[in-house]
């Protein structure tokens, strides 16, 4: 189904947010203005149309127009699972490659998944989403919380034990996954370890060791490799929590508390606090009949977003595709089931902001074979240049396009 996106005006950078989704319009003709949201009769809360919301989110993700790499990464972080796909997501948002040096770090962040984030913003995407101790089950997972309770451990106690073990194990440098698990086996009681039938060995429960990144203890200097976060997090926690809520709303607003909780994997109560603490900086709107939150100083962009131009090939776990409000992105349930299967997600083809196709790829020697499928009879644009770029990022020389 085509989701028509567009508008006329770009966002202006918010003061003090150099790595937030600062908006730039490198120059262009004035574009047709979109109709503004209809007024709502619900105590003055106005209605936002789905097309407006999607166009606004495109701008938040810098998918309407490419920007510099650090700004693109800082919008909401870029997930790098499956491994290597962060490069594809960054290409869709930026005309630059991943910055060299230490300005960007990979860390287990939202949903405990590996993410690229600006090193200066580590606290925003990790510690800011950690709720009080009595709500930590949302972070480590309900099953892990139950297993810990059965073993006589509180969640905070277990995380403290694991954190101490990680600091000791990684004191001399990075460790790969197997070496790190061996270090945990040597340093932790059996009650914190789970039996893995496939490996025929005990491993620290993933809900515990992956949370180390979110606690500001570890980073990932290479694939399946962990080291101590350097330098340690020193950011003000109040400012970090406020910035997390702002970044989320710029990329995924209008949004609910539950969507923020889902995106970060935190408790709904903590998500409510994060948004409530913004005070008058947020306001409510109606989208699809539900009250949602937006940043008050972004309503002009929501009303009149800039027009998206060009072709983008997004992976199935791209932050925009994986947005927590799937119903607005893909209202057709049959299409949603195809886009979000339990395994083997297809990629998404955007043309001028419209969702016009799905794609899958596989390597055949030095060629990336890309199968394209048009949605609802849409005319597919020329995607060869974009597909070739994706092929190079996936370790191939070129792309070969095929119909699905």
UniProtKB/TrEMBL annotation:
InterPro entries: AlkZ-like (IPR009351). This is Winged helix DNA-binding domain-containing protein. Residues 1-12 have a biased composition (Basic and acidic residues). It comes from the Bacteria. Residues 1-47 are annotated as: Disordered. It comes from Paraconexibacter algicola. Residues 21-30 have a biased composition (Low complexity).
């Amino acid at each position: 189904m085509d989701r028509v996106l567009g508008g006329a005006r770009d966002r202006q950078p918010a003061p003090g947010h150099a790595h937030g989704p600062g908006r730039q319009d490198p120059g262009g003709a004035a574009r047709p203005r979109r109709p503004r949201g209809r007024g709502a009769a619900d105590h003055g809360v106005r209605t936002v149309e789905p097309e407006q919301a999607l166009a606004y989110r495109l701008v938040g993700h810098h998918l309407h127009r490419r920007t510099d790499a650090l700004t693109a990464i800082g919008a909401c972080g870029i997930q790098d699972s499956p491994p290597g796909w962060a490069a594809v997501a960054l290409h869709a948002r930026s005309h630059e490659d991943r910055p060299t040096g230490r300005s960007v770090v990979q860390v287990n962040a939202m949903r405990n998944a590996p993410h690229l984030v600006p090193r200066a913003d580590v606290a925003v995407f990790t510690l800011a989403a950690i709720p009080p101790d009595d709500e930590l089950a949302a972070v480590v997972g309900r099953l892990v919380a139950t297993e810990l309770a059965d073993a006589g451990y509180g969640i905070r106690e277990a995380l403290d034990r694991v954190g101490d073990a990680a600091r000791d194990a990684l004191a001399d440098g990075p460790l790969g996954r197997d070496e790190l698990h061996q270090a945990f086996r040597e340093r932790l009681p059996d009650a914190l370890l789970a039996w893995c039938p496939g490996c025929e060995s005990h491993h620290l429960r993933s809900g515990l060791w992956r949370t180390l990144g979110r606690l500001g203890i570890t980073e990932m200097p290479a694939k399946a490799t962990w080291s101590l976060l350097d330098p340690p997090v020193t950011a003000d926690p109040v400012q970090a929590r406020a910035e997390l809520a702002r970044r989320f709303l710029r990329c995924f607003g209008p949004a609910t508390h539950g969507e923020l909780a889902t995106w970060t994997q935190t408790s709904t109560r903590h998500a409510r606090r994060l948004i409530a603490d913004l005070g008058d900086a947020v306001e409510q709107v109606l989208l699809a009949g539900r009250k949602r939150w937006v940043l008050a100083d972004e309503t002009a962009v929501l009303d009149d977003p800039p027009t998206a131009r060009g072709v983008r090939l997004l992976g199935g776990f791209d932050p925009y595709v994986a947005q927590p409000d799937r119903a607005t992105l893909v209202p057709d349930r049959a299409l949603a089931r195809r886009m979000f299967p339990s395994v083997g997600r297809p990629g998404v083809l955007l043309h001028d902001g419209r969702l016009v196709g799905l794609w899958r790829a596989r390597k055949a020697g030095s060629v990336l074979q890309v199968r394209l499928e048009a949605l609802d009879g849409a005319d597919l644009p020329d995607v060869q240049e974009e597909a070739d770029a994706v092929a190079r990022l996936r370790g191939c020389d070129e792309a070969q396009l095929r119909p699905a």
